[in-house]
Amino acid sequence: MSVPTIATSRAAADGIPGSAHSEVALKARASRRSGSFRPKALIPIVYILFLLLPIYWLVNMSFKTNVEITNAFTLWPANPTLRNYAVIFTDPSWYNGYINSIIYVVLNMVISVAVALPAAYAFSRYRFLGDKHLFFWLLTNRMAPPAVFALPFFQLYSAFGLIDTHIAVALAHCLFNVPLAVWILEGFMSGVPKEIDETAYIDGYSFPRFFFKIFMPLIASGVGVAAFFCFMFSWVELLIARTLTVTDAKPISAIMTRTVSASGMDWGVLAAAGVLTIIPGAIVIWFVRNYIAKGFALGRV
Amino acid sequence: MARIRLDHIRHAYSPELAKAGNYALREVDHAFEDGGAYALLGPSGCGKTTLLNIISGLLTPSEGQVRFDDRDVTTLSPEARNIAQVFQFPVIYDTMTVRENLAFPLRNRKVPQAEIARRVDDMLKRLRLETRADRKARGLTADEKQKISLGRGLVRSDVNAILFDEPLTVIDPHMKWQLRSELKELHREFAMTMIYVTHDQTEALTFADKVVVMYDGEVVQIGTPEELFERPKHTFVGYFIGSPGMNVLPCEMDGDAVVVAGHRLALAGGRANTASGARIELGIRPEFVRVVERGGGLPAEIEKVEDVGSERIVRARLGGLPVSAIVAEGQPLPADAALAFEPGALNLYADSRLVERTGGRA
Amino acid sequence: MEKTWNNKAWFFVLPVLLLVAFSAVIPLMTVVNYSVQDTFGNNEFFWAGTDWFTELLGSARFHDALIRNLVFSAIILAIEVPLGILVALAMPKKGIWVSVCLVLMALPLLIPWNVVGTIWQVFGRTDIGLLGYSMRALGIDYNYVQDPIDAWVTVIVMDVWHWTSLVVLLCYAGLVSIPDAYYQAAKIDGASRWAVFRYIQLPKMGRVLLIAVLLRFMDSFMIYTEPFVVTGGGPGNSTTFLSIDLVKMAVGQFDLGPAAAMSLVYFLIILLLSWVFYTVMENAGRDRAVKETAE
């Protein structure tokens, strides 16, 4: 069989003698393999620039005075000021918004994961009467538009006297977070072989001891991912949170809109408040960065 | 088809590793003759898959050249090298039918339609997949999927070489035999160069004309199965091939003889030239160790006897050194035993490498 | 996995059931209740039967909002899904840059939705926003407050900015799960870049892509906060999507009956369309497997 007649096209520069032992040769070949710069890398770079530009503009504004914002168009603060942040951190009606948001988000996270854990275990391990329908029905709640529920929620929680409490918002957010948490956790749990359960029972573990001592560590990353998603959707939601709160549990994002419309346009403070709502999210992402890819596949690709 | 020449190949996975002297392949200088059936045999992590990927072009070696006949292909892509490779785990294109899977490499190379149909039908028949030809590949069993992977390599009969990377790992034992003989038959028919990576000695020895044994990033011996068995060039080869492996006993030189566990043994075939200070070992296959009455050899304690069906394996201790011997079924074992080594089967190793002795093979 | 039949598992599901019943079933009952009644305030209700439904289904206002929403979702899917796949394909696979990319890309997903609206409202303003100002400087007549087309473009770009990363992250998760051997085999088989995408990457992304399309469809169909903050549904009614219309009706005009009827219809449309998407996409991937079992 003849060798295909592709010309032996090794340029002189490539003609590294086989015996040459040098880092130069190694690096030359390594760089030829990976290429010094691939145009493909431009796509994520351009995309990230597109994402960061509006955020940059917000951050930029938060360090400007209102005079500079409205009168001069500057790409970065000419006279950087911390006044806008000072306003927020010295006024309880501002910073309480953050505290309120954090309280109901954490409450929601704990409730959602706590009730989703046993349910996800049941769905991943057992068959029972109506299991498939139940699972599907749970997921349909994720499809419910918050706008549909805003008013009935208000009336329901009024009836229980829960309006303007953190727990009300936390419970209301369970509407979309519990189904999601069940779905994510079920995915992660199904990845744990059933033999682990059986071995533990044979070894004489009681169910609670098995669940917390053996099973939970195995799905720890799943719990983390579920908590992350609960945090995410509870933190970003406004419509329901605003409807159910008046003053005592008002989330920061709602305070933002109200205060701004009341005091004319204090652009600087608005921007600073916006920047401060981005920070908790950024911190949380940083902690789960290694699980993001797996988390978004919901535990099973 | 082509003769594949590996010219002083060394490979490290990064320049930093190379600087630290950490090479996945330390030095390989070898040629695979056109039309040969080779096995690359060695334990996990010995560099055999690295070497295979260098031949196929998935990796560019850090140093050295790969030549197909006289053509330097060191930096060519796998496609330009015109080779086929089958991987350890089945790789199939889920959304294609079995037939489309097999036709895929041919279609990519613009082979005429009629020719594709002919070759694919032929391959379907050989792999006994005719009944599945028009099914989507995703629903098949692991066996069948791996057969498709094999088929995608074999269907290209004009390739320079076909490389197999432990292709039968996921296949059922009875199917392994069938597929291996199918491969042998294809090899005879088309005389393609085949290189077969495995860590299973049976697979290597039954498949290959020549076995390349690798250990720790190096080729330690190339030879026919007989050569590997009778004259292991490295204690690793002796230990890795054969069941149980070769007995390797530390010893000292004493003129023309060696001293093992305090006993003097004359060596057949003349004086050995060993560098002073080298670590000397004596190698003997269990097949050439006889268990005799005390007085007929070196006195030893029998520790246990394993019955493996056709024969028995005697585990003994010779002054503290473990020695295995293979004894025929039914042969009585003396209570006070001694071991006799067949003089012609003794191999001497200095620093793990076989010492060639003047006077040739006994 | 082989599951054992055990009805006691219901006890595990009970907390979820109670919680969701409280936060979904009771409110939904209220909605159903309102949808068949009329009120003139003072907590007096009158039986209205299916009047609200017939009125709603015949109303031009509802039709317009529905069509606007469908067009919006279609545009969103047509932009975000291909763009998300493209970015995911171009993402680095190893090293420090993966974390950097993932963290930066996930950032918009964790910004409260009204802040997203605020960011774009400011960004697009022609007096103080970088985007609006630059457009003006380039001589493009851009004003999202007055021009319906500009308002739509702004809302769409904002949604692309906000949500494309979700598609990217889902696709990326699908891509990194493909073993190297697949790419190597494709190289050996001489497959083109397109063939690698068509026969390896796309099939392996199938599942996550289904999730991405479903989530993006549902959420874009339910969109409320972001366009409300940016445009308030205007100019005119040009960006009044179903949710915005619903809240206007329920909270602004306190038309409980029509709003409740609209809520139910709205919810049913989402369920129906999601089911259609799900079935169509599942079938596209599974039809052969089903045929095989039928054989």
Largest interface, counted by CB within 8 Å of the partner chain's CB: A-C, 99 and 96 residues
Oligomeric state, counting identical vs distinct chains: heterotrimer
Q: What is the number of independent domains of chain A?
A: 2
Tally of domains of chain C: 2
How large is the count of helical segments of chain C?
Answer: 12
Total E-strand runs of chain C: 3
Which fold name fills CATH's third level, the topology of the largest domain in chain A? MetI-like fold
Q: What is the CATH-assigned architecture of the largest domain in chain A? A: Orthogonal Bundle
Main-sheet strand order of chain C equals: 2-3
CATH class of the largest domain in chain A: Mainly Alpha
Which shape of chain C, going by the Cα principal axes? globular
State the order of secondary-structure elements of chain A, H for helix, E for strand: HHHHHEHHHHHHHHHH
Taking Cα atoms only, what radius of gyration of chain C do you get, to the nearest Å?
Answer: 24 Å
Task: Estimate what percentage of residues of chain A fall within beta strands.
Answer: under 5%
pLDDT < 50 stretches of chain A: 1-22
Largest sheet of chain A: none
**In percent, how helical is the residue content of chain A?**
over 70%
Features:
heterotrimer, A: 301 residues, mainly alpha, MetI-like fold, disordered N terminus, C: 295 residues, disordered C terminus
Secondary structure elements and pairings:
The complex is a heterotrimer of chains A (301), B (362) and C (295).
Chain A lengths: L22 H12 L7 H21 L3 H6 L11 H8 L1 H34 E2 L3 H12 L3 H14 L6 H25 L3 H9 L4 H12 L1 H17 L2 H5 L8 H11 L4 H22 L3 H5 L5
Helix pairs in contact in A: 2-14, 4-5, 4-14, 5-8, 5-11, 5-13, 6-8, 8-11, 9-10, 11-14, 13-14
Chain B lengths: L3 E8 L3 H5 L5 E8 L4 E5 L6 H9 L6 E6 L2 E2 L5 H4 L1 E4 L11 H11 L4 H14 L15 H13 L6 E5 L7 H18 L3 E5 L2 H7 L2 E6 L2 E6 L1 H6 L4 H6 L6 E4 L1 E3 L2 E4 L2 E4 L13 E5 L4 E5 L4 E10 L3 E8 L2 E8 L8 E5 L5 E4 L2 E2 L8
Parallel strand pairs in B: 3-8, 3-9, 6-7, 7-8
Antiparallel strand pairs in B: 1-2, 1-4, 4-5, 9-10, 11-15, 12-13, 13-14, 15-21, 16-20, 17-18, 17-20, 18-19, 21-22
Chain C lengths: L3 E2 L4 H26 L1 E3 L5 E3 L3 H8 L1 H31 L5 H11 L6 H12 L5 H8 L10 H29 L3 H9 L4 H29 L3 H7 L10 H11 L3 H39 L1
